Amino acid sequence: MKPSRFFGLHAQPSAGFSLFLAALPFVLLLVVYAVASDARIAENPDDKLLPSFTSMYDAIIRMATEPDRRSGALLLWSDTFASMTRLLVGVVLGSVIGLLIGLNTSIYPGLRALSRSFLTFLSIIPPLTILPILFIIFGVGETAKIALIFIGTVFVISRDLQLYVMQMPREQIIKALTLGASELAVSYRVVLPQIMPRLLDTTRLTLGAAWLFLIAAEMISATEGLGYRIGLVRRYLAMDVIIPYVLWITLLGFMLDWLLRFAVEKLYPWYGLEK
């Protein structure tokens, strides 16, 4: 078959071939890692940089099923619960507040003029640079970590929603007002339903940054969490724990991404049609 049938501008690969293409990079990555790991272990059996699949499997099973000698907790699950709690609280707060800010500052011209430049300014501040300030203000407990995730997502979401609403046809608002709708009704019964799928989409795209803020904060100051565990075992070059933890974080992020994408497709099937 001609390559253009699969890779040309008008290519339409079959479902089976699409699945093969999707799996191919992962298979190649595993093969390259296995070859490199075997080569390093053959040269030095005590090498810790590229542990074998067997050692990583044993390590993650131990973390998931054997209670910790000091705390008695199953470390993988306790770390996951702590990190997911911080992440979800921060992202949900950022999404809700970002929705309220983005909606109201885009509907009302006065608020838009007041906030547009300021939101742009706030959204481009690197959140990690203010982490020391958050630790000083809130201490090294949970509040600072959640605040970092919140700050890192709320202004990006609010700015994106503001720009999205500004691109909507103004005639919708004018017609609703002409038919007797109040300004509040226009905001929350005309505009809000249209931007909800955009909110979920934008939240989905901010998850990567939210994970970054979470892991960084946990590495600096925490007593449990996925980032804390990675930072702790890094001192012992325990790559057989670090790599599975990184893969576990990636899997959790992928699952959250899929859930939000699934929610958009099921709740707002019209959203993809207008793109």
Give the arrangement of secondary structure elements.
Elements: H1 4-7, H2 15-43, H3 53-65, H4 75-107, H5 109-123, H6 131-138, H7 142-166, H8 170-178, H9 183-220, H10 226-234, H11 239-267
CATH class of the largest domain: Mainly Alpha
Distance between the termini: 33 Å
Specify Rg, calculated over alpha carbons.
24 Å
What is the CATH topology classification name of the largest domain? MetI-like fold
How many helical elements? Answer: 11
Assembly type of the chains comes to single chain
CATH architecture descriptor name of the largest domain: Orthogonal Bundle
Strand content: under 5%
Count the beta strands: 0
Please tell me what the overall shape is: globular
- Low-confidence runs (pLDDT<50, min 5 residues)? none
Q: What about the largest sheet?
A: none
Order of helices and strands: HHHHHHHHHHH
Query: Could you give me the name of the CATH homologous superfamily of the largest domain?
Result: MetI-like
Helix content: over 70%
Give the tally of structural domains.
Answer: 2
Structural class: mainly alpha
What do the pLDDT scores average to?
Answer: 88
Q: Mind explaining what this structure looks like?
A:
- The protein is mostly helical.
- It folds into 2 domains: 13-61, no CATH class; 74-274, MetI-like (MetI-like fold).
- It is built from 11 helices and no strands.
- Helix 7 (142-166) runs antiparallel to helix 9 (183-220).
- It is globular.
- 26% of the residues are buried.
- The model has no long low-confidence stretch (mean pLDDT 88).
